[in-house]
Amino acid sequence: MRIYDGFLRAAERYPTRTAFLSQTQQYGFEEARRRVTEIASAIDARFSENAHIAVYSPNNVEAFLCVLAVFAAGRTWVPLNARNAVEENAYILDNTDCEGLFVHSALCDDVPTFQTRVPSLAEVIGIDQGQAGICPLDEFIRAGDGTVPEIPDDPDRQVSILSTGGTTGRPKGVVWTHRVWETMIATFWIHQDPSTPPVHLVSAPMTHAAGVLAMTLIPAGATTVVLDHFGPVDVMQAIEAHQVTHLFLPPTAIYMMLSHPRVREFDYSSLRCFLYAAAPMAADKLAEALEVFGPVMVQSYGQDEAPMFCTMLSAQEHVEAATDPALRKRLWSCGRTTMLTRLGIMDDQGQLLPPGQPGESVVNGSMIMAGYYKNPEATAEASAHGWHHTGDIGYADEDGYVFHVDRKKDMIITGGFNVYSAEVEKVILGHPAVQDCAVIGVPDDKWGEAVKAVIEPKSGQS
């Protein structure tokens, strides 16, 4: 199934239901489908058949429609993070051979740099307005004839290239096919209740997990409520005002909400799935989140190369672990392997390890990337022994719950002993005065590395 088919399915089933909503814009599904078709038709007229097209915007309804239009036209979507440095985004555009760029006016100052550094960049379109060298979207769509090409239903067709965080060098382009998208969407709905259309709040960047989750929910007729930034009160107000059922936030953002003096003023009873990922939450803070937001917390584990839902700790499992002291440790896990993915713990020799032994998490299945764009060496390295290597160190317990303790390249070796930063962070986060913390290794003459904690105290604490 093509990724765009999910949006068409929702438009056919729920033509008058609100598809996208922000403070300034609102589209019903049928209205959104017509707008997407206009943009996609122009893309088909103006760009080569296999063009890579980036969308560069803060969270914005029209930007979401541009992403859907890239899919509808059978081109490849390249997400571009509005928070990156301009030089990094120029590298990503060049590394992924981008031919087109949809850009929001808030970021237009970066365009001259892109045009200088990216030889493949043929056309820039203004999402909300044009200016010198940037074609306004309403002018751009005149190039189309109102029709979109029939894209082959090929599960191995490339449809998006995401970029890794670049923590170990330049970002690598991660190729997703229709198969990756389809498996990810199916995995989510296997483990969640699809009985009523969701209302999904996007406040984290749409270029990352929040945007990917939006594409996952849209086939079920989700209304996507778009905030252009994250603010604790803005999110809390939006949940109540729009009867939000689903949202994603990283743990740090949830901590900010929990520590806000107004957190208990709002009604969160509409929530069905409050998804967090990227790191485990401290057990005490999770217990508080369950008290405040209800039995709706869900954790998942993945990365760009194996997105979002390799494991899942369900809402019910959160409640069981929070209320049963014998199971409380599970709150530090990222759950158990999901239905359509295989996950193992592997040693450096390529042997899968038994429960309780730490090693590198490796995954397999149809949700794994097709490879790194134009980088066969990195692809081969990440695929050693027939598994995708995540770079995360962890272990699985006897019940199949997966615990991650560090990134393989970030493990601290002090005095000959392996120290996992997540284990130290777990203890520090249990202190009532701590809002958040990060543990790192620093050079030490005696021990080789010493353990250093960087701590953010709660407001009014020291």
Describe this structure in words.
This protein is of the alpha/beta class. Helix content is 30%, strand content 28%. The protein has helices spanning 3-13, 29-46, 61-72, 86-95, 111-117, 137-140, 178-191, 209-217, 232-242, 251-258, 283-293, 315-323, 376-382, 421-429; strands at residues 18-21, 26-28, 52-56, 76-80, 98-103, 123-126, 135-136, 158-163, 173-177, 199-202, 223-226, 246-248, 273-276, 297-303, 306-313, 336-337, 341-346, 359-365, 371-372, 388-396, 402-407, 412-414, 417-419, 434-444, 448-457. The strands form six sheets. The protein has a nine-stranded mixed sheet, with helices on both faces. Strands 4-3-5-6-7 form a five-stranded parallel sheet, with helices on both faces. Helix 1 runs antiparallel to helix 2 and helix 2 (29-46) packs across helix 3. It is globular and about 65 Å long. The termini are far apart. The model has no long low-confidence stretch (mean pLDDT 94).
List keywords for this structure.
462 residues, nine-stranded mixed sheet, 14 helices, alpha/beta, 28% strand, single chain
Summarize the structure.
By secondary structure, the protein is α/β, with parallel strands linked by helices. 30% of the residues lie in helices and 28% in strands. Helix 1 runs antiparallel to helix 2.
